[in-house]
Amino acid sequence: MNASAQPKASSTFDRERLNAVIAPVVHAHGGEVVDVELKTETGGWVLRIFVEKLGAAETNLTTEQAAVDLELCSNVARDLSPALDVADLIAHRYHLEISSPGVERPLRDRRDFSRFAGQKAKLKLHHAVDGQKVLVGILGGLEGDDVLVEDSGRHHRVPFAEVSQARLVFEFGPRARPGKGGGKAPAAKTAGKTIGSTSTQPKLNHKK
Predict the structure, then answer these.
(1) Distance (Å, rounded) from C-alpha 64 to C-alpha 71?
(2) Coil, strand or helix: which one is 52?
(3) What are phi and psi of 16, to 5 degrees?
(4) Residues 42 and 125 reside in one and the same domain
(5) What is the pLDDT along the chain (208 residues), one digit of tens a residue?
(6) Is the CB of residue 177 less than 8 Å from the CB of residue 63?
(7) Lower CB count within 10 Å: N or C terminus of the chain?
(8) CATH number assigned to the domain comprising residue 140
(9) Which domain holds residue 115?
């Protein structure tokens, strides 16, 4: 399965080596890494790290229960910045953002599809399944290596290896949006990047 959706130009990076730097810092502050993306936006390159509470996956927390607060994001950003400087895995300047993934959380590994069974999701596929390369429907969990999706009464079996991108889909309704709240932390500038953090609103437009 590939990285999360990247609407604009993206930069290749060694995800495994980068995660080896990021994960211990996030873990030390009581969080776990959901996803990492590096892409260019209006204000420049952004390294965006999505984080939720430690143990959220193991205990099958909802997106609302798993959301981290602004203090955790700020603390992770503060301690992760020098670690990234030492590792020097990204050649160009970038903004660093730490965020909860929010209600439209990316789904990256097998346990995500089991954890969020019964919720609506959007899957983009490498090759068409039942004539469709994009499926939007209710997750039915996993059966063997297949992701089960129900769409308007039609049941699809999607090989996990065929999923290129996937995320939850938030449906507007009477219920309050989970994870809403928090705010933006002040940016701290370093020679190579600008550091910012946010709990549920990941877009920051810091400029050098």
Answers:
(1) 17
(2) strand
(3) -65, -45
(4) no
(5) 543 333 334 566 788 999 999 999 999 999 999 999 999 998 899 999 999 999 999 999 999 999 999 999 999 999 999 999 999 999 889 999 999 999 999 999 999 999 999 999 999 999 999 999 999 999 999 999 999 999 989 999 999 999 999 999 998 765 444 344 444 343 333 334 444 445 333 333 333 3
(6) no
(7) C
(8) 2.30.30.180
(9) 110-168
Going across the sheet that includes 146-151, the strands are 154-159, 146-151, 132-143, 120-129, 163-168
Tokens representing residue 132 in the block: 């469709």
CA separation for the pair 72, 26 (Å, rounded): 9
Asked if residue 181 and residue 128 are part of one domain, the reply reads: no
pTM to 2 decimals?
0.76
Same domain, 118 and 79: no
Number of domains, the chain: 2
Q: Based on the domain organization, do 71 and 50 belong to the same domain?
A: yes
Q: What DSSP letter does each residue of 70-139 carry, written as one string?
A: HHHHHHHHHHHHHHHHHH----S-EEEEEE---SS-B--SHHHHHHTTTSEEEEEEEEEETTEEEEEEEE
